[in-house]
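ok so for the tutorial part 2 we go from a plain amino acid sequence to predicted structure tokens. step 1 is just haveing the sequence, like this:
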Amino acid sequence: MKRDIYDEDHEDFRASVRQWLERSVIPNTDKYIADKALPREFWLEAGANGFLGLSIPEEYGGAGADDFRFNAVLEEELAKVGAAFPTCVSIHVDITAPYIVELGTEEQKQRWLPGVSSGEILLAIGMTEPSGGSDLAALKTTAVRDGDEWVINGSKTFITNGYSADLVVVAARTDPEKGPKGITLFAVEATKEGFSRGRKLDKVGMEESDTAELFFENVRVTDAEVIGELNMGFIHMMQKLPQERISCAVANTHHAKQILTETLQYAKDRKAFGQSIGNFQHNKFLLAELFTQIEVCEAYIDKCVAAHARGELTATEAAKAKWWSSQAQSEILDHCVQLHGGYGFMNEYRVARAWRDARVTKIWAGSNEIMKELIGRELGL
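step 2 — the prediction. this is what the tokens look like for a chain of 381 residues:
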């Protein structure tokens, strides 16, 4: 079925993204895996091509596109290369930058956004804590007022881009008596005294993504580093999470679709018992089911992307997109591994890496169980 959410400008943009990936990224994927990180050259080249400032106004060095469909195109093409790429880029472009663009002061925008657009300032967001997981309201990192400064103490974990980030938007408790209404967001530069990083975390998949623990020991910041309103951090995060979840859904869908397409070709080429394995009725029926599943998923995600571009996507719709796409991806890639047989269990095959990479998508950005809880509440339950 022909997709109808993109116009000629979006497809021209897609072609430029694909050209960059084929020229500069795909030839280096093995190196990124070995280094367990995307190098600064990756970010600088992405910035030079205008891919990092899609929603950043032109006066701050961005593209000023203000159309989430461009973000979705970028994520689709990155996902075809590997699951870690849209993850890292989305944290920078879709998830963290909007806090500064939409909530930042004029001084903050001038101070940070040009570097965010160029790739000279890499972003991460510090929400998740070792003891909290998806329960953002229970965070323990604190920011205590001391004269004209705030003193931040605590830790964060599972932070994508955490090992190499230059600027981290950190959620900290500023009023312990107010619960979720006592949380504030701070922009913490990595050069601040008392800020440190743990090791690159040894993950099951997504080796290209540098994921780290972050530590804050008497880190001093001023009101100039407060993002948004005091004690409104939890509300700000809740307002931004739908974009994170639809971004995840786009990546989930197109990562799975790419690997499924490659698996179809493998099923045509691989011979057993005198014929292509795809010709066996079980495999033929299975592939028919999987392609239907991914295309139905894509249709819903496209509808969500279009709604979000119009500013109409609800938090519940985003939750549905996130849990459904991550579940579909896991099921599809598990079948793809099975169709590859023993080769599907070899790391040298993309399908094996994709299968491992996909598992975390049912956990992060709010676990699928949390997504179902949100959907259930909307149903009045």
